[in-house]
Amino acid sequence: MPNLKKVFEASPKYKKMLTAPDGHIYSLPWIEELGEGKESIHTVNSLGWINEKWLKALGLEHPKTAKDLYNVLKAFKEKDPNGNGKKDEIPLSFISNDDGNDLKMLFAAFGDGSGDNGQHMIVDDDGKIKFTANTDAYKEAIKYFNKCYTEGLIDTESFEQEWSRYVAKGADEKYGLYFTWDPHNVTGPGDDYVMFRPLAREDGQVNVTRTNNFGFSRDRFVITSANKNLELTAKWIDQMYEPLQSVQNNWGTYGDKGQNIFKLNEAEHKLVHEPLEGTAPVELRQKTSVGGPLAILDSYYGKYTTMPDDAKWRLDLMAEYIFPHVNNNYNYPNIFFSQEDTKKIADIEADMMGYITQKRDEWITKGNIDEEWDDYLKQLKAYGLDEWLKIKQENFDNYNKG
């Protein structure tokens, strides 16, 4: 598999994340690089988008602190920023615990600023694994959201709405602030909504909580023991890792009838992204991209393909507003756990993660976090939080030794 071998030689970390504890590789990966380290597009899962048209209509500045945000949301609710004479504005909306559309980005504005992410786990600069959903900062953030909810500043549908409903309200520009990965999929191609800037906590420091994503998954292709032509199959799948083929697998085709993702620059043997022309990127690419096993490295841009316009646009915004505030040097790699550890983690998370979401939503909508906090911490321990942290830490330490 010479194409895959070149990928591993260029970026050994992917082979490391793909290799099982017994030293074998059992499946083949999907890899998509768009930036590196703390400046990767995968650094955060969800971004905020604020209605700048409404800010201008009310003479408001972009909020810089949680207090500022509260005042902005209050103004969105009470002062008719859309100018239609109706109180139909939705100051803040999200889809609870949907990583790409959740408000976890706001948690870093409270307490020590460690914030929260989809796994409720960060790595500090000493390489220590920290849980984020049991801290005083987490509690403080939820009390703030409860205040906002009680005063009608948070969309009551945020805790159960489907994607289609979320998009429908976005298309009508009902939102003052909402969270999603790509605003073009929610509020369309206009420029009324701009990237929300991370809030400073009380000491003036700004932090963006890193996700634990790498643009990598190890489960895109498996050859089973029933296969009678192992070498031929491996040679075939290796063609998926040929650069121009990987680019098409990830984003779509060229030269077909109808709308294409690329045109081929024959002189340079390079695929050039066609303009989106207002179409939501996901909707367009899903028509012809196949995903599956592939690899796109940062070195491919300019050599085999251009960077997608929407990704370049987002990376430029993140470089201005997000990346300067990503303070943690580490995030948690996609470690290949042993079968025993995988089962233990799955058993703990099966109960614990759902419980965390349930209590978060209850506290935001109904309050009572002070009265229930100690019982909540005890329940996390009962589910096995200490063992979960121990497994995560041991595997992280072993991974970095290897």
Write structural notes for this entry.
- With 402 residues, the protein is α+β, with helices and mostly antiparallel strands.
- It folds into two domains: 2-43 and 213-325, 3-Layer(aba) Sandwich (D-Maltodextrin-Binding Protein, domain 2), CATH 3.40.190; 47-209 and 337-401, D-Maltodextrin-Binding Protein, domain 2 (3-Layer(aba) Sandwich), CATH 3.40.190.10.
- The chain is 39% helix and 11% strand.
- The chain is built from 13 helices and eleven strands.
- The chain has helices spanning 2-10, 12-18, 52-57, 66-78, 136-150, 163-171, 230-238, 243-251, 281-285, 309-321, 339-366, 369-383, 385-401; strands at 28-32, 47-51, 90-93, 121-123, 129-131, 175-180, 193-195, 216-221, 262-265, 270-273, 294-296.
- The chain has a four-stranded mixed β-sheet with strand order 3-6-2-7. Strands 8-1-11 form a three-stranded mixed β-sheet. Strands 4-5 form a two-stranded antiparallel sheet.
- The longest helix is centred in the last third of the chain and has 28 residues, at 339-366.
- The two termini are 24 Å apart.
